[in-house]
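Exercise (ungraded).
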Amino acid sequence: MFTLSSLGIVIFQVIIIIVLAPLLSGIIKKIKAFFQIRKGPGIFQPYYDIAKLMRKDSVVSENVSWIFHAAPVISFAAVLTAGLLIPIYISDMPFGFAGDLIAVVYLLALARFFTALASLDAGSSFGGMGGSREMFVASMVEPALMLSIFAIALNVGSTNLSFISQAVSSMGLSAVSPYHILAFVALFIIAIAETGRIPVDNPATHLELTMIHEAMILEYSGKQLAIVELGAMMKQLLVFSLLANIFFPWGIASEISAAGIAVALAVFLIKIIILGAGMAIVETSTAKWRLFRLPDLLSVSLMLSFLAIVSFIIVRGV
Amino acid sequence: MEEIVFGSGIMQLLIALILVSTFMILGSTRLYSCVRAFGMQSFLLACVAGIVAFSTGKTDIYIVAFLTLAIKAALIPYIFIYIIREIKVKREIDLYVNISPSLIIGGILVVISYYLIRSINLITELSSFALSASMSLVSIGLFIMISRKKAIMQMLGILIMENGLFLGAISLTYGMPLLVELGIFFDVLIGVLIMGILIFRINRTFETIDTDMLKTLIG
Amino acid sequence: MIEYLLLAPVLTGMVCFFSKTRKQVETASLAGSIATLLLGLLLVWQVYKYDIIITWQNALFADAFSAFIVLIVSIVGFVASLYSIGYMGHELDHGAMDLKRLRLYYVLFHGFMFTMLLVGVTNNLGLWIAIEMTTLVSALLMILYSKKSSVEAAWKYMIICTVGITFALFGTILTYYAAVNILGETGDALNWTSLIAVADRFDPTIMKLAFIFILIGYGTKAGLAPMHTWLPDAHSEAPTPVSALLSGVLLNCAMYGIIRFYTIATKSTGIDFTSNLLIIFGLLSLGIAVPFILLQEDYKRMLAYSSVEHMGIIALGIGFGGVFGVFGAILHMFNHAMTKSLMFFGAGNILQKHETKEIFNVSGLVKSMPVTGAMFVIGTLAITGSPPFSIFISEFTILAAGFSQGHYIATVLFLLFIIMIFAGFFNNVSKMAFGTPKQGIEKGDVGRLMLLAMGILMVFVFVLGVYIPPPFYEMIMKVVEIVR
């Protein structure tokens, strides 16, 4: 079942994920700068940052154990593996048999777990704080994520991402239904939390009172930091492509052909830029919330997914 | 006919959005955003009435849709904003039940409403979405009234209940006869005005509009 | 005919609005309420003659039941406006309100009359609109004084009743839905007459649900427990003449709504369902009133709880059913209206003299205010159902109906509750009426008009206790025919 072409698909997917992730990050920064009437760094700035970090040596605390060294690599690998399950330019993923949406959720959770573990390992106060906050947010994000995914899975009758993507794109415009939209909005809110953006976390700050993700990775430097940062950007790209290709999979290639793939890639890029612009609008128009108000936001997401499921049941009359 | 109207995708979407707007009111701690969400809800309701009017071609329902738009989506939110401004009330609403539990209770109410509607087997499955949404609006409106401290929010809760009934009426029977419908609009409007007067009076005599203070008459 | 009846209070209100002096306002109000009374009696006479009157493209109608409600509204309204002149005049003299407020009071008073008359004569389920209007107007009457307690009472009243009435609207919608399924979408689908004719073909499931919502909705307005919580506040904080109207008339109007729907629902669901609901709510109201009357410290609140009790009795009467039960309930509506208004007027006199609502701050009424005191004591005897007063007759009829229809447990409970209420009531009132007057209370009664108003009501209380005039009896029998 594993042909050469599927190997090609997988390799191409990996390349796309690694190459596009920093670009997306740069584009969002640029759009944000536009809304804030600043010039902002160029869209390729994240590449320069990573390249520069790669050239630097790491400074590591004497007290850390092997976990500290292993964590970035494990997280990176977990995110990349999740990337193999999510359709980006082609809906029929070769690894589709290996796992579904739930596997994606757990792979992302694994990455998060090791990052949080590493933050505790260094024994610095910020790291511990960041780690505990991250897990606090995660404890609410993950059920909400699960529920919103179930809402959409219920609609097509499968949790396999490739299948969902194909099913929705073949349904055409009739796929747009109350539950579809509700689940999308719910997942969008989760995406805000998952990518560590305002109002949940502020990716641009090192203010100790508010940071979550930045506090966790404060101890890292040099090459390790580059891997961690790249991992975070990849995760962001994956969350975006989940949003784009599960809810609006139109344009995605269903079989291997150069033209189809080129179109699919272009459409994909447009979709994630639109999503990024939406994210940037949310970020510039809201203020960061207090940590203890976050459950409110995430329960909104939870409720929306719940409503999606309920309205599915009502409309279909199951 | 009914099935065609209420089963159509756009109608389902509107009804889902009405539910979302209700949850926006439940999930918000700011008075202005609550009022805005209410305005949105009424606007969506007017759209629902408009579509029903269009597909049945009845002038009566057009009038009702227009009145919903003018009174519930424009005038009543304006009255709310006027009251909020005039009495210089603190913009945050105080809660007896926090946001997250409120939202969860709201969700439970939706499910209960659905099962209630199903169990009485009122109508074909297709418009049961509209009916369960209407029941949920009524129950959530009631919940908002008892879980929020500000007098204004109690007023809002009543109006949400009223909106729910309006949705129920229009999905069950395409609304009541015009004369009755006009009377209901009149009562709602006058009711809002009088509640506004009462809120001003409460604010003047108690120097707050927290209904916590209104607990002296017992027994 | 009906239009003129409705027009009378509206015109009176307008004249009051443009009046300049106190004298003018009072004259206008009194003249207006006399006109309303006369027109009301005329309507009753016409209904007596023609059985049913329908005007205004079916929007307004009057049968015996409507006429009965109109009769109660216009009699109590007239007496209350008579009493108002004395009572509100006293308030004006003592600086409790100014001329502007007084004028507003009379305008709202007649507006209130208008809405209550409207309840009686609306032909269709639009009854809902009229009942909601009564809430709106009376809430404004309640905040005439800017006291903290009255603002609080008005808010509670407004909120609880509006929510209740919203449920009633849902019930109304469901009824309409049931009717449309049979009659098709005509405007007629809301008219009492056409509803009654086809009510037996309505879907019973829907009608059951509708009746529950109606009972909760209008039951809130009628003060049936456990939705009665607003009632003691509102009835004790309103100005006294308004209290009398609220307790004596408005509760009956809400009851009227319940009974109308009861008639329709019963045809579709069968009598057991609706009757049992009414009996349960009725007993609950009676039971809840007992402890609150026994331990009450505020005499106006005591009267308010007594209204909860009596609404419970009316619900019981309808619930027991049979000619006796319904007859007793309808008669009880009238008797309660008269007696409770009498009691509230008495309480108003006491309040103006003693300036307190607390029972233990009032004593020796029979000595300090001989006429009021005597009438208050007689009123107490009457309201608790002792012979030979009017309420005894209606309560006895309901009791008899309970036994004859085989509702033994309910009837025994009913008997038990009214005995306990009798004891509680009498214990409280005897503290107020006998003993030595409090220091600083001069001997002497209040104004003559107020006593006259009470005297008129006394006549009804006495006469109906020993003799029911044949035309009145016939009228009630017609109502019973409509309800059953």
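Further reading is listed at the end of the chapter. For now, observe: Chain A touches chain B at residues 174, 176-179, 181-182, 185, 295-296, 299-300, 302-304, 306-307, 310-311, 313-315, 317 (CB under 8 Å). Chain A has a mean pLDDT of 85.
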